[in-house]
Amino acid sequence: MKRIMYISILLMALTSSAFAATDDIGLYVKDIIIGWSGGGGTKDVEHNAFSYNQYAENYWDIHDLSTNVYNKLDITFAQAVNYDNINVVATYSDGTTTETKIANGATSHTVNFDANKTLVKIAITIGWDGPSGSTTIYFDSIIIRAKDSTGNVGTMPVGSPKLGKGMANPLLDFHYIADPTAIEYDGRLYVYGTNDHQQYEAGTPTNSYEAIKSLVVISTDDMVNWTYHGLIDVKNIAPWIAASWAPTIISQPQADGSTLFSLYFSNSGTGSGVIQAKSPLGPWTSPLNKNLTDGFDPGAVVDDNGDAWLAYGGGKGKIVKLNADLHSVAAGPVLPPTPYHFEANELNFINGTYVYTYNNDWSDHTPWNYGGEKPTPCSMVYFKSKTPLDASSWTYGANYFKNTGENGMNYGNNHTQSASPPSRASRPSRTSTPTPSSMPPRPQPHSASSMSWPTARATWLPRWVRPAPSPLFLLRASSRCATLTSMAPPMC
Fold first, then answer.
1. Is the alpha carbon torsion for 173, 174, 178, 184 positive or negative?
2. What's the rounded Cα separation, in Å, for the pair 132 and 337?
């Protein structure tokens, strides 16, 4: 049920497309970074106000926004500005700026960004040539406008502190995140994970999981540089849930031209819930007031016909076909053969074949009457079929991902996840790899009661180590090594 430290991601190349955003971005006083070298300033979050001292550059850190997507800044003031020399400065990645002056008595102000730039910082300062001293500005709203704005206002994505340090791993170094799932949209890969940090903040001595009722979102367009988008507050969206673990996500184009994103999650061990949105970043809604299925660890996929499927279960795997609304069942459940099933259901559609993977249990898997190599304890196996609603059509594939303990590392329950990254003409070279001493400790064989908080834990993505002959890859992360391995075509 919990894929804590051992993450694998099946990556399939696809054609990238330009990233387009339609949500405006709101900026807030609480997020201002104070420029102490010029005398600083004072935040008044309660009144959405900021007191500026002369010369200090107090600014918002903007994370690489294209000015071809976000083209202007609109500011409205709760009280008319009462000062003669206040400047707004937009700084771009090439070091150039756009600087405008706010008129004394203004109740609003607009800054039009230069085209074909990357916005990295917005500052409001008291200039050098004018009245001295400080002044207080009372804001109503500060909004970066999307060129194709729909009127929705989101928040500024937060950059990971590790970015710029030449280290692509871990993906997040300041937040406990587990069970990643991913979806590609408009040339960007969005990754969602269990917010284990919520349990950490609850102060429990072990990760007992019951406090986790939200999910974490990060994204990338190059598999190296990652943006942290914050949390999905599942408990607030769906008050009926007990917990939110191990998500999986799919999307479907809609008749009105929009895209429906459907995110499924384990509602503790009681079943699988679902929330939906028209953007990979929300806003999210709960279409049901109950679980969609009676089994946990869901894994969803959309096949080439546009049909959506969901695998789930603990102890026994099940598969259903979903209706076009992606939150009701059209057919099933079907019980394919899932011998010695434990957890970690995942469903993929590869070259016309449905591939069902799961994590088997800790037994020695005797007897084994399904052909091929008998799988090792607590490892990943897969079954495959061309006709998923025919339980008898599923045949054993392989024991394709053995436990780390089989390779001299700590034992732990294994999980996989498929993802399609944005393609690049050439992928960046990964020159830095975590050393064993810097890697987070892994749990011993799965036991919620014995799993203590590690000194550090994060989601890891391995470096690329060699070209592969197939577009299908297995990314593997473990406690002592990180490798990229090509999956052989027979898997499909």
1. negative
2. 77
Torsion region of 402: left, alpha or beta (phi above 0 gives left; psi -120 to 50 gives alpha):
beta
Q: Residues near 257 by Cβ (< 8 Å), separated by ≥ 6?
A: none
Apex 72 CA angle, 70 and 76, nearest 5: 130
Closest CA to 349 of 492, 184, 182, 187: 492
- The one-letter amino acid code at 444 reads Q
pTM: 0.61
- pLDDT at residue 159 greater than cutoff 80: no
Give per-residue pLDDT as tens, 355-377. Answer: 999 999 999 999 999 999 899 99
Tell me the two tokens of residue 341. 């099933």
Are the CB atoms for 385 and 348 separated by under 8 Å? no
Stated as kind and residue range, the H or E segment containing 216 is strand 215-220
Calpha distance 476→439 (Å, rounded): 14
Instruction: Report the distance separating Cα 345 and Cα 413, nearest Å.
Output: 13
Task: Please report, as a single letter, which amino acid is at residue 208.
Answer: S
pLDDT given at position 454 = 38
What is the DSSP code string of 88-136? EEEEETTS-EEEEEEPTT-SEEEEEPPTT-EEEEEEEEE-SSS--S-EE
Measure the CA–CA gap between 394 and 13, rounded to whole angstroms: 27
Q: Is 179 a catalytic residue?
A: yes
DSSP letter, residue 452? B
Give the C-alpha separation, 250 to 292, whole Å.
15
**C-alpha triplet 265, 271, 272: angle, nearest 5°:** 25
Report the C-alpha gap between 172 and 162 in whole angstroms. Answer: 8
Sheet of 118-126: strand order equals 58-66, 118-126, 86-92, 97-102
Which residue, among 393, 415, 395, has the nearest Cα to 478 in the 3D structure?
Answer: 415
Is 406 designated active site?
no
Which member of 23, 24, 57, 179 is catalytic?
179
| pLDDT digits 0-9 by tens, 415-440 | 555 555 554 332 222 222 222 222 22
Task: Give the CB-side neighbour count of residue 279, counting CA atoms within 13 A.
Answer: 16
Q: Residue 417: in which H helix or E strand, if any?
A: strand 417-419
Listed in sequence order, the residues at least 6 apart from 425 whose beta carbon sits closer than 8 Å to its beta carbon are none
The secondary element (H helix, E strand) that includes residue 245 is strand 245-253
Tell me which of 23, 196, 221, 343 is the catalytic residue: 343
